[in-house]
Amino acid sequence: MSDRLFNWYRFASPQAFYPLAGRMIPWFWALAALFGIAGLYVGFLVAPTDAQQGEGYRIIFLHVPASWMSMFIYLVMAFWAGLGLAFNFRLSGMMAQALAPTGAMFAFLSLWTGALWGKPMWGTWWVWDARLTSELILLFLYVGFIALQSAIDDPRRADKAGAILALVGVVNIPIIYFSVKWWNTLHQGSSVNLAKSSMATVMLWGMLLCALACWMYSIAVALMRVRRIMLEREKDTLWVREELAREAS
Amino acid sequence: MLTPILAVIVRDLRLALRRRSDIASVLFFFIIVVSLFPLGVGPEPAQLRKLAPGVLWVAALLATMLSLPRLFADDYRDGTLEQLALAPQPLGLIVLGKVIAHWLISGLPLTLLAPVLGIQFDLSGEALAILTVSLLIGTPALSGIGAIGAALTLGVRGSGVLVSLLILPLYIPVLIFGAGAVDATLTGTGAQAHLSLLAALALAGVFFSPWPSAAALRIALE
Predict the structure, then answer these.
(1) B212 contacts in A (CB within 8 Å)?
(2) What's the predicted TM-score (pTM) here?
(3) Any domain includes A5
(4) What whole-number distance in Å separates Cα of residue B2 and Cα of residue A204?
(5) DSSP string, chain B
(6) Which domain holds residue A127?
(7) What is the pLDDT of residues B13-30, one digit of tens each?
(8) What's the ipTM?
(9) Contact, B178 vs B134, CB < 8 A?
(10) B87 burial type by CB count under 10 A (0-12 exposed, 13-18 middle, 19+ buried)
């Protein structure tokens, strides 16, 4: 492996990844702020008022990115978990553990902003729409993952058990989504389908910028959290003691 | 391949029959929960008919979940599980045997009780038949998926509550199609589609779930 130009496996070790993550975090924060300001500027000042929904539609600039991130983070979490299970990387389990709270927060945020949007648009905080219901179930899956990981004291076992749960959850997500969808259509659900107006380009740009901001924020926060997890789990090793000594001085 | 499965089934059934009160308490839990609903929402027959599929199915879900910790916990405590894991037969097959035994002990009695409880909700004969069939098809999936949760929470603090957090979200498709089948019969659209989907879920659940359960058991035994 030494003849490779760059050895990726080096960063599977917490000791090597810790300083790298530390160097990357400020950049991701900066990008998150940059994209966030740009997205909010486009969203609030450039994008026109919607013909059907008035000003209230502007909450989608947070709502849609939050929903995307909540789904995407679960996939990333399951990816890390599967990698950890297959190759026994220590870092993978830590990454999965670090991502879970952020994903749960985005799922909650998506439900909350959805309710705030639904009240003026649909006249109700909550409907049993297929998307809302599956987002709620996604939040339950996150909660289950976090609860299982925190109930098991041995971190190695917690990682592996969480990994199995995350993978089972990933297999189940499409089944749950389609069952909820069919359930909803079979029930002749409240016809809340928004008249699909093709979204103006400028609105789309605002949304994409906000999505990028959420993305950068997620990476920055996950890296910060994974650094803390590394210190906590490896607190008896030499490199952590040296690292802490350096940070204290 | 069948011998280890059969051996595990026979063993688990024999153990369960020596502790009949465990089976009975789960069944009475089911009966009590179902009987509480008319007391809570009022005795109008039309309303009860509308609620019946959901109530019976949710109660079956909860009753199955209550019986899950026993699936592996006793064997884990007295070391049998370790011996089973060391056996030359694949652990997945042994888990499959345990899942089948669990269904015979909890799922099947629940199914047989359900039509009697359905009468309390003023269900018609046809709806009672579909309810029984849907439970007969769906409860194996509950045992199968539940085994994953039971294996993951083995020997973990507060595993009783934890298993419900892990497993109930995964039970949602079974609940939707199971209760949906009865609902469709009541509204006259026919239960065929729901029952087919339920059967697909049950087959997939029973076939695939022993393998992640076995992996989770090995983690617990490490």
Answers:
(1) 164, 167-168
(2) 0.87
(3) no
(4) 58
(5) -HHHHHHHHHHHHHHHHHTHHHHHHHHHHHHHHHHHHHHHH---HHHHHHHHHHHHHHHHHHHHHHHTTHHHHHHHHTTHHHHHHHSSS-HHHHHHHHHHHHIIIIIHHHHHHHHHHHHHTT--HHHHHHHHHHHHHHHHHHHHHHHHHHHHTTT-TTHHHHHHHHHHHHHHHHHHHHHHHHHHHHHTS-SHHHHHHHHHHHHHHHHHTHHHHHHHHHHHH-
(6) 59-190
(7) 999 999 888 889 999 999
(8) 0.87
(9) yes
(10) exposed
DSSP state of A169: H
Q: One digit per residue, pLDDT tens: chain A, 249 residues?
A: 445 556 667 777 888 888 888 888 999 999 999 999 999 888 888 877 776 677 777 888 888 899 889 999 999 999 999 888 888 888 888 999 999 999 999 999 999 998 888 888 777 888 777 778 888 999 999 999 999 999 988 888 899 999 999 999 998 888 888 887 777 765 544 444 444 445 677 888 888 899 999 999 999 999 999 999 988 888 888 888 888 888 887
Q: Is residue A80 part of a domain?
A: yes
**Nearest alpha-carbon partner for B172 in A133, A127, A186:** A133
**Phi and psi at residue B187, to the nearest 5°:** -85, -5
Q: Is B141:B174 a contact under the CB 8 Å cutoff?
A: yes
The residue segments making up the domain with residue B123 are 2-221
Domain tally for chain A?
1
Is the Cβ pair A172, B170 closer than 8 Å? yes
Look-up: residue for tokens 């004969």? B125
Optimal mutation site among A148, A178, A187, interface B, most CBs of chain B within 10 A: A148
Region of B190 please: left (phi>0), alpha (psi -120 to 50) or beta. left
Q: Tell me the backbone φ, ψ of residue A50, rounded to 5 degrees.
A: -75, 140
Number of domains into which chain B is organized: 1
Given 3-state DSSP classes, what are the helix, strand and coil percentages for chain A, each rounded to the nearest 5?
80, 0, 20
Q: Are A98 and A84 in contact (CB under 8 A)?
A: no
Chain-chain contact of A140 with B165 (C-beta, under 8 angstroms)? yes
Side chain identity, residue B22: D
Interatomic CA distance for residues B184 and B195, integer angstroms? 10
- CA dist B114 to A18, A88, B164, Å? 57, 46, 22
> Which candidate from A161, A175, A179 shows the least CB-CB separation from B216?
A161
Based on its alpha-carbon atoms, the radius of gyration of chain B, rounded to whole angstroms, reads 18
Which residues of A touch chain B, with CB atoms under 8 Å apart?
A: 137, 140-141, 143-144, 147-148, 151-153, 157, 160-161, 164-165, 167-169, 172, 175-176, 179-180, 182-183, 186
